[in-house]
Amino acid sequence: MTHPGVVPLLDRVADAVSDAIGRTRPELAGADPVLRPSERADFQSNAALALAERLGVRPAEYAAELVAALAPGPGRPVATAAVSGPGFVNITVPDRVLWAQVAARLSDTRLGVPATEHGRRTVLDYSAPNIAKEMHVGHLRTTIIGDSLARVLGFLGAAVIRQNHLGDWGTQFGMLIQYLDEHPDARWRHDDVADGAAVSALDRLYRAARAAFDADPNFADRSRARVVALQAGDSPTLDRWHDIVAESERAFADIYAQLGVLLTPDDSVGESFYNPMLSGIVAELLEQGVAVDSNGATVVFSAEVTGPDGAPVPLMVRKSDGGYGYDTTDLATIRYRIDTLHAQRLLYVTDARQALHFRLIFETARRAGWLHDGIEAEHVPFGTVLGPDGTPFKTRAGGTVRLGDLLDAAVARARAVVAAKNPGLTATELDAIATQSGIGAVKYADLSTARVKDYTFDLDRMVAFTGNTAVYLQYAHARIRSLLGKAGAPAPAVATDGPLETAERALVLTLDAYGTTVAEVGSTLEPHRLCGYLYRLARDFTTFYDACPVLKADKPQRGNRLALCDLTAQTLAHGLDLLGIAAPERM
Ligand code: ARG
């Protein structure tokens, strides 16, 4: 059974306005009630502005009709309705209805959020670092965004299948394996080198192999022979390849643990997995006439995208030397994920520069009939992480920034900031909090930026206690938890007939919109909407807390205010968790 959830007031009032439209003018039944949160009331409907023309009356006239039809009545969540401006209808909700929402959300383990993605089989491709190479800052965004989407969609009830499309196949492995064989003294295994250094060693050896390949034609020939051996399944070559993959995956697992992401080795389905399917894919495309031969290679000419010369852009499915690349493998992911994993929604979280790649892949899969109606395939693009100078983030020496180093630096910075704010913490507490805040800060800075935009990696801003940061939200949460701790006994039931002040009202309305925001993230795949919501919630809470004493208030206000504190803390912690960020009890 789908969890029905607590219906948000926005939806209930929208229904009331729809109902009023149908009663006043049956011919308009089903028209959009155009309901929004309002600065002047709880909500405002702009329906009259949109509908008056169809009726041949002035908007204010029809707004007045709607107001009359919205008069308080049994079951109608309306306390007042009034015409405003040229034809807006301002609506307020009865206080007891607002308090009842708080009570209903507090008594539900899901905070009243319905499972809007219930049962939808969603394959989520994210992270996907490359074997024998270090994870770098370029893998940060896909890993963080993908993981947050996995959490949000999972919470909304989707059957999320994570796929880590590791770059574990290709001619470069022939080169690396050949080089390792010719340099038996090279040390690159976890057991032979310092902690965490195995993949760095492999990365270095890989560069050395490439240099040898470019400089020495004989080595290049031996490397090519190795590729053939690898593809033919030669067993010593395969053993060596397995070793390299395992060592790299160990290093990735360390980063995943540090980041606290959901990915496990079971989610690894690398490029090599699809290798046996590629010749069949190309044969089928040729048979269907979707792919054609072109100068010895096999290509699909796009029917939708043309290049600068006006000619259709080709997708290379088999190179003239008979090899397959990234494109063909991604066609195979679509087939496999639909036919075998039974995906209803396919998501690929990679940087925006791959937009054309996915456009061509999806087009080809549609033409081949693999990607059919009712299945949604989406590239989930994101912008670049920039350095302080506004260009793609590099180390001072101009090299790629290792993800591990970056995360260590963030934790160290958070430690200093938290220690200065709260000198009373023990070293053990400080260690734990610094990790949660430092990692949270990096994740939040990434997730709170509109996904397709670039952002600047600025540690000082990320770990600040003020502004739209994880640390600000974590601190807001910890403060409320400490307040609740001081209140002692568990809060009594919400008194729905209690008074409701302006700042309380604003807070209740924001709390009530949590599920709507999470559902929006599920459909738009934009976690920054949740960040923006949590920031607004924390600020509405601060305004409430400045205006309304909690512990010193009398009954029933004290209990009701504690309920607001409790629901705010739970909502903050829950929302942070959906972003993959911890909410410590103390800070
Ligand atoms: N390994 C690739 C990279 O590091 C990303 C793969 C993304 N997933 C996919 N199915 N193409 O850029």
Automatic annotation (TrEMBL):
The principal localisation class reads cytoplasm
- Ranges spanned by the short sequence motif 'HIGH' region, renumbered to the chain: 129-139
Identify its protein family: Belongs to the class-I aminoacyl-tRNA synthetase family.
Q: State the EC number(s).
A: 6.1.1.19
> Which keywords belong to this entry?
Aminoacyl-tRNA synthetase, ATP-binding, Cytoplasm, Ligase, Nucleotide-binding, Protein biosynthesis
Spell out the reaction equation it catalyses.
tRNA(Arg) + L-arginine + ATP = L-arginyl-tRNA(Arg) + AMP + diphosphate
Principal EC category: ligase
Q: Which GO terms describe its molecular function?
A: ligase activity
Q: How does it assemble?
A: Monomer.
Per UniProt, what is the name of the gene that codes for the protein in this document?
A: argS
Q: Which domain of life is it from?
A: Bacteria
Q: Cellular location of this protein?
A: Cytoplasm
Q: Which residues form the Arginyl tRNA synthetase N-terminal domain?
A: 11-93
Can you give the residue ranges of the DALR anticodon binding domain?
A: 473-587
Q: What is this protein called?
A: Arginine--tRNA ligase
